[in-house]
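Handoff note, outgoing to incoming analyst
You'll be picking up this chain. Sequence as last confirmed:
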Amino acid sequence: MAKINWGKIGKGLDKYRCIMALYNDSFDLSKEDLFQKRFKGFYRMGRRSEKYYRDYFRLFEQMREGKKLTIGEVLNKLYLSEKRKELSFASKMLATIDTKLPVWDSNVRNLLNNKYKTNFKQSYKEISECVEAYNELCNWYKIFLKSPEAKVLILEFDAHFPNQKITTMKKIDFIFWQTSFK
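Most recent structure output, in case you need it:
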């Protein structure tokens, strides 16, 4: 693995903690401008219409209030907004709601494909293909998180950032996401 930039991860952790605090403390994510701004900035969600963001954060709030949806259901609802298959954005929403879920990100996917020789698809004709790819990613992580390499990465993370109250998945997300931008 490439050299890990722990300083960059530390800055990301600060932003992530802020997002999660806003997520937990906001009254309504669909109306909370600060949460939306920080979330979109952190996850690099640019160039979408105001309607898309309105629909996205309205759905986000509904799910936070207890409406449980699968990745496929989220993708279908987001598709109605702009006719785009937004697997990355859907995964970011789900990974905020359930921090044991991975984020699907093109940079992370590329890192994994190059380093671990996975077979995550590059483009999708149908939403069902997006669901299949995300489920494949989740299954890959289940196996990887039990591996010696993952255990070493978690130990290194914990040595640099002791007493972090984030899931093992988020720790690996931070390491992979940071490494992918080198």
